[in-house]
Amino acid sequence: MNDLEQFFAANTGRLIHKWHHYFEVYDRHFSRFRGKSPHIVEFGVSQGGSLQMWKHYFGPGTRLDGVDINPECRRFEEPGVRISIGDQADRGFLRSLAKELPPIDILIDDGGHTMEQQIHTFEELFPHVAPHGVYLCEDMHTSYWRKWGGGFRRRGSFVEYAKGLIDGLNAWHSEERGRFDVSDFTRSVHSMHFYDSVLVIEKRPMQPPSHERRGQALFADYVPPKQTNLQRLKRQLKLGEPR
Question: How many C-beta atoms lie closer than 10 Å to residue 90's C-beta?
Fold first, then answer.
């Protein structure tokens, strides 16, 4: 049981609502920021319990910015904790928020969980995540719930949107320049991690990948013989493959 799980298990303060498997994900990607006075932005303040959890986990000097649509959440402001009120689906609000914030070490999207909110928050705030920072979106299972704008492989869901980001990560290898190019996302993202209901993106300034060979080759690389159309058709018929 990691420190986050222990805090949650012993919590008698403000309400915290988390899926149990999230704690391992948090600790895996956030632990390197402990004791380093990080700037954390969390969408979805709710009852304020997670703000207390992060403050305890990251230690003194941590700056926390909580964002919620409910004005009642302002009561959780305290030294080191600022609360902003607004709808994360509102791009204007997100842009004004971004102008007020210093670079974000960790951005946690635990807000309203609609497709519009998740996509808008990513598009407007991800560029403001620090060059070695982390973005985490949780409760992505709403991408499979129609009430939240999702549905299995439904166009416009956040899961389908995130699948497109995988292409961006690999754009260095594109042969279709003009249609599929290296982007700021490609240059700034080291890795993407998918878990049940969670996406974590770790940033790091990236250069085009390179490779080399070392050691002595003992024989020439194997080159498969080219098949004629007739040979391919005979093979398909023999194996019962579709033509």
Answer: 16
Query: Which percentage of the chain shows pLDDT scores above 90?
Result: 81
CB atoms within 10 A of CB 108: 22
> Per-residue pLDDT averaged across 66-91, rounded?
96
Active-site position among 20, 39, 56, 113:
113
User: Can you list the domains of the chain with their CATH numbers?
Assistant: 3-210 (3.40.50.150)
Neighbours of 41 (CB within 10 A): 27
Task: Report how far residue 100's alpha carbon sits from residue 168's, in angstroms, rounded to the nearest whole number.
Answer: 28
Q: Is the pLDDT of residue 241 over 60?
A: no
On whether the CB atoms of residues 190 and 203 are closer than 8 A, the answer is: yes
- C-alpha–C-alpha distance, residues 47 and 104, integer Å: 23
pLDDT of 156-203, one tens digit each? 999 999 999 999 999 999 878 878 899 999 999 999 999 999 999 999
Q: Are 107 and 65 in contact (CB under 8 A)?
A: no
Which residues contact residue 233 at a Cβ distance below 8 angstroms, ignoring those fewer than 6 apart? 243
Residue 113 is a catalytic residue: yes
